[in-house]
Amino acid sequence: MVAQSQRPRSTVVQPVRLVIADHQEFARVGIQTLLERGPGIEVVGAAGSSAETLRLVERQEPDVVLVDASLPPAGWLEVTRGVLHPGDAPRRTRMILMTQELTDDTLLRVVRAGVHGYVLKDSADWVFSTAIRSVADGEPFLAGPAIRRLFSRFTFLPSHDPSAVPSELADLNSRELDVVRGIGTGLSNREIARWLGVAENTIKAYASSILAKLHVRNRVEVALMACRLGLVPLYPAPLSTHRGAPGSTVPRQSAVRDQTQRNPYAAKARRPAR
Q1: I need a labelling partner for 155 at 20 to 30 A (CA). Which of 8, 10, 33, 265 fits?
Q2: What gap in Å lies between CA 274 and CA 259, rounded to an integer?
Q3: 20 strand-pairing partners
Q4: Is the pTM of this model over 0.85?
Q5: DSSP-based three-state secondary structure for 14
Q6: What is the pLDDT of residue 212?
């Protein structure tokens, strides 16, 4: 007797449960109509204010909430805090922000707030559906214009190369460059002195010489110049400036002299705690 072949089991894919939040009713209806043309997305609610949105999210527990940036009365940040940081137990709901136009300020605030996706309101319907499915699957999504803007902004960032000395700083000697790096990372004269293993008065003398050579008025201008020219990274790792602290990486004077051109923040040896 020949056994019959078993049919493969069909995999049922649950639709993404979505809440739409926009203060304009025609926008809510239009987006819902577009999304319901295709399979895989179920609109479980729509809201016209931030308070109504948070109530819907609490009641429906959707997979994704699509929020308009101009949502009244307090805007999208209130919804972000309520959705992503509700208090005791974190929600599984993820959030996509949509805006009418793309600005650097909005894009930066979106990234800092922890929003999972970002689309423009005039995007094609497939962009909305792709963004919603991607975010529901745990993948962040940025619309094409946002990605292009991010890439374009990287061209304005200075390249951090500790071995290179910009022409604007060519008049400084190696030790003055060390002091500029310290100032650029926000260290005081005392902290730089501890870091380099020299007297604080020596650092003060170097600092005065640096101001004169660079024709600047104060340490703030020195720090800005150091960041602008790439002499220090824009987000440097914090330096421990306490001699002998547990786990400290304060370099000795000889180590700084040897390491300055390769990595001004590296330490050859750790000092034992006293």
Answers
A1: 265
A2: 25
A3: 46, 66
A4: no
A5: coil
A6: 93
Structure tokens at 172: 């400084």
The tally of CA atoms less than 13 A away on the side-chain side of residue 102 is 16
Tokens of 210: 């640096």
In order, the DSSP letters of 227-267 are HHTTSS-SSPPPPP-STT-TT--PPPHHHHHHHTTT-TT--
Q: Quick one: pLDDT at residue 249?
A: 36
CA 186 to chain centre: 21
**What is the C-alpha separation between 42 and 63, in angstroms, rounded?**
10
Tens-digit pLDDT profile for residues 173-184: 999 999 998 888
User: Which residues, in sequence order, are CB contacts of 100 under 8 Å at separation 6+?
Assistant: 69, 70, 120, 121, 122
Quickly list H helices, 10-168: 25-35, 50-60, 76-84, 104-113, 125-136, 144-154
- pLDDT tens digits for 78-91? 888 888 877 666 67
CA distance 113 to 82: 12
125: nearest Cα among 1, 30, 265: 30
Q: How far apart are the first and last CA of the chain?
A: 86
CA dist., res. 257 & res. 70, Å (int): 55
Q: Which two structure tokens, joined as six digits, stand for 107? A: 């894009």
Q: Where are the alpha helices (DSSP H) in 36-103?
A: 50-60, 76-84
Pair 107, 115: CB distance under 8 Å? no
Cα angle vertex 105, ends 103, 110, to 5°?
95
CB 241 within 8 A of CB 187: yes
According to DSSP, the residues that pair with 47 across neighbouring strands are: 21
Q: Which helix (H) or strand (E) holds 222?
A: helix 219-228
Interior angle at CA 234, CA 232 and CA 235, nearest 5: 105
